[in-house]
Amino acid sequence: MSSSFPALDRLGDDARVRLEQTLDQHLPLDSAAPRLSDAMRYAALSGGKRIRPLLVYGAARLAGATLGQADIPAAAVEMVHAYSLVHDDLPAMDDDDLRRGQPTCHRAFDEATAILAGDTLHTRAFELLASAGDYPPATRITMVQRLCEAAGVNGMAAGQMQDMLAHGRVQTLAALEAMHYLKTGRLITASLQLGYLAAQVDQPTLLQDLCTYGDAIGLAFQIQDDILDITAGTEQLGKPAGSDEKHQKSTFPSLLGLEPSRQRASQLCETAQQALAGYGDSALPLQQLAQYIISRNH
Amino acid sequence: MSSSFPALDRLGDDARVRLEQTLDQHLPLDSAAPRLSDAMRYAALSGGKRIRPLLVYGAARLAGATLGQADIPAAAVEMVHAYSLVHDDLPAMDDDDLRRGQPTCHRAFDEATAILAGDTLHTRAFELLASAGDYPPATRITMVQRLCEAAGVNGMAAGQMQDMLAHGRVQTLAALEAMHYLKTGRLITASLQLGYLAAQVDQPTLLQDLCTYGDAIGLAFQIQDDILDITAGTEQLGKPAGSDEKHQKSTFPSLLGLEPSRQRASQLCETAQQALAGYGDSALPLQQLAQYIISRNH
């Protein structure tokens, strides 16, 4: 990330090292099916922006936790995200060949392996929350609840289903926002909730403010994704540019226009930053992350 | 099931009604993506032998619980089983068109919907263990742990991966047993563990005996499956008979011969029944279930 976000960079550098180590430690190097563990590692350890884990770490710090207290939920959230990408990329879904500049999991391995690797990343996320690190059982259970609600049939997976059904049809702006809230927003907000839970504090106002922040950046993130799909190249994105047009998807730019989409993203960034305005310098990393999300070029 | 198993029938009749009600209650009638919730219900509510839930109920009763205490883990285990069937049936995996006498989920809906319905059944199982019913957080967490270990990269999914890789190759008997232990045995034993946990007792010997019983019937179940694939018809099975030969799979009959396979299943049934011999009449349903497993004709 750019050096115009110094507080974010400081958190991000530490958080990314910790996340990679945690994923490396908790994704099997070997297993009863080595091809399957290889595919899990391929899908989860091949980079990416790591925004969701950053949100876990950022929320945990803001709630007074150490970064170490956030390692397990950060890795769990990233595993759920990685599982969803592997399945969404499959030929029967979005049929994408490239992800993060590399062949997608089913291209690097095969479809059956990719389906199973997504499945085992999914299981592993909940296993981590139930077994790893040092949290009271009640905290673990609340983390599992929040992650399930965000990922399941009224969350991320429902968003993907809505997205698939919308291919080739013009959506209303309200339907588009609702779809993205499910597909992306809920897991982003859950990341903040899990970071908050890792700190084991009782600050309901902070939790509420984190959710307000999360809902705003979740939508801003998607608007920026839609903008980049038009304005950026494939090499820059690490995935095929212009894929929204190829899939005849409604996007914020197609419904609103490019400049109004940028304005909407900018307003959402401001809403997010305002939600954390009362927390002083501790909130700087998350506030800068909101800015980064709408100014990123990949 | 046949009336030659009266104790099993008494448990089974009650358990099946409770299971259907619990699944019906906890699988969404509507959701943010109605097609997805329809597919979840289609996959989980279209019958089946319900052996895993029966094991949950049977173990819970043996440990002194009411059937009601076992409803949630019984439904969770069945959801994980249903998710695995939906994904295993996909064209990229076993490519099966028929399941329980009905079109498989991807045939009744489409591949994308089936992938997502498997995913959301998977998530929903953990959500149930984390949220539904009335259990202390530590019990919920242990249930999640056991179910994750049984389903994940060193359990059911690894078994499916091994199975896929073995198509067209002759396996050793040891490799075949190891594969089935992962693919089927671990979830069967986990079902008994979850039933035991639902009772919230501290009887480590009982838990150990249930695991011995589970490991034996898990293997016996698979041997009987292999035998039926040769000796039964498609109509009787509700899925294509002869599919092992079609996929060039090693099976117990192909490695051992038909009659020695029957003998091995019979020995395993006896091992299972012996493991519970010290528990008197309370163990009768599970002992009869072992007998049913090797004498069933579908």
Automatic annotation (TrEMBL), chains A, B:
Among Pfam families, the record links this protein to:
polyprenyl_synt (PF00348)
The signal peptide here is: none
Give yes or no: UniProt keyword Iron: no
An example of a GO molecular function for this protein is: prenyltransferase activity
Name the Gene Ontology biological process terms: phospholipid biosynthetic process; terpenoid biosynthetic process
What InterPro entries does its record include? Isoprenoid_synthase_dom_sf, Polyprenyl_synt, Polyprenyl_synt_CS, Prenyl_diphosphate_synthase
Q: Which GO terms of the cellular component aspect does the record hold? A: cytoplasm
Report whether Transferase shows up as a keyword of the record. yes
Q: Which cofactor does it need?
A: Mg(2+)
Question: Known Gene3D superfamilies for this protein?
Answer: Farnesyl Diphosphate Synthase
UniProt keyword annotations, A-Z: Isoprene biosynthesis, Magnesium, Metal-binding, Transferase
List the PROSITE patterns hit by this protein, alphabetically.
POLYPRENYL_SYNTHASE_1, POLYPRENYL_SYNTHASE_2
The entry sums up its family as follows:
Belongs to the FPP/GGPP synthase family.
Looking up PANTHER family in the UniProt record yields: FARNESYL DIPHOSPHATE SYNTHASE (PTHR43281)
Under NCBIfam families, the record lists: FPPsyn
In its UniProt entry, what is this protein called?
Geranylgeranyl pyrophosphate synthetase
